[in-house]
Specification:
Elements: H1 3-9, E1 16-19, E2 23-27, E3 37-41, H2 53-73, E4 78-82, E5 93-98, H3 115-129
Length: 130
């Protein structure tokens, strides 16, 4: 069971920003920038291109909806999208507020926001989505 499945089941807490019966979006706890969100299917599949077509399409549509909320809540030019899939064996989409290409550099030092800062950011995004 992946760490993301443990978040879905509630075993591990997360700063959730959006959720449906099939998908979950929550803040990365070591973000590249403020507002860095992870979007996952609730069904655990390691490799994104192994996901069935209907779930994959739903994941992308849900990601688009969440990205619109991120862009409203976090000042940025665009919300970048990345799928790497090596760090956790559960398909996930990174949504990253960006003002420069360097904001998407996964080799950069990650931020270490406090639980309070994460909660505040999550609330801003949830409010932008409602």
């Amino acid at each position: 069971m992946s760490i993301f499945s443990k978040i879905i089941s509630g075993e591990i807490p997360a700063h959730k920003v959006a959720e449906t019966s099939d998908f979950l979006a929550f803040l990365d706890i070591n973000p590249l920038v403020e507002g860095h969100v992870l979007v996952i299917p609730k069904k655990e599949v390691d490799y994104i291109f192994d996901i069935d077509d209907e779930t994959y399409a739903g994941l992308m549509i849900f990601s688009k909806i969440v990205a619109e909320g991120v862009k409203k809540a976090i000042p940025c030019k665009k919300v970048g999208v990345s799928v790497i899939g090596l760090e956790v064996p559960h398909a996930h989409v990174h949504l990253i507020p960006m003002n420069a290409v360097s904001d998407m550099n996964f080799s950069s030092e990650k931020l270490t926001p406090s639980a309070e800062q994460l909660a505040e950011t999550a609330q801003k995004i949830r409010a932008a989505l409602s």
